[in-house]
Write a structure and sequence with these properties.
The chain is an all-beta fold and about 90 residues long. The chain has one domain. About 0% of the residues lie in helices and about 40% in strands. A six-stranded antiparallel β-sheet has the order 1-8-2-5-6-7, with no helix packed on it. It has a two-stranded antiparallel ribbon with strand order 3-4. A hairpin with a 6-residue loop joins strand 6 and strand 7. The radius of gyration is 14 Å and the shape is globular. The two termini are about 20 Å apart.
Length: about 90
């Protein structure tokens, strides 16, 4: 599978994908002052997340959004590429 640029194609609404976040620096467990780059995450694409019922967040450049587990949600522009999840092992 190849990475797909978000400006060339988007996932289906509610689709879980592997997402590439080139600037996703996270705190190292045990030392919050130490950061490590973790650019690949599993996220769910939310088409038109900010719609008629939600006001778009001031930091978002799009009505779309990426949902993750816990605190791993991301604004649309933070993801540069995505790819479908691989098939489950047999």
């Amino acid at each position: 599978m190849l990475w797909i640029k978000i400006d060339s194609q988007l996932p289906e609404d509610n689709q879980m994908v592997l997402a590439y976040l080139p600037d996703n620096w996270v705190s190292t467990p045990g030392d919050p002052t130490d950061k490590t780059l973790q650019p690949i995450k599993m996220l769910r694409f939310n088409k038109n997340f900010y719609g008629a019922h939600k006001t778009r967040h001031k930091n978002s450049s799009s009505d779309h959004f990426w949902s993750g587990e816990g605190l791993s949600n991301h604004f649309f522009q933070e993801v540069s590429h995505w790819m479908p999840l691989p098939q489950e092992p047999k």
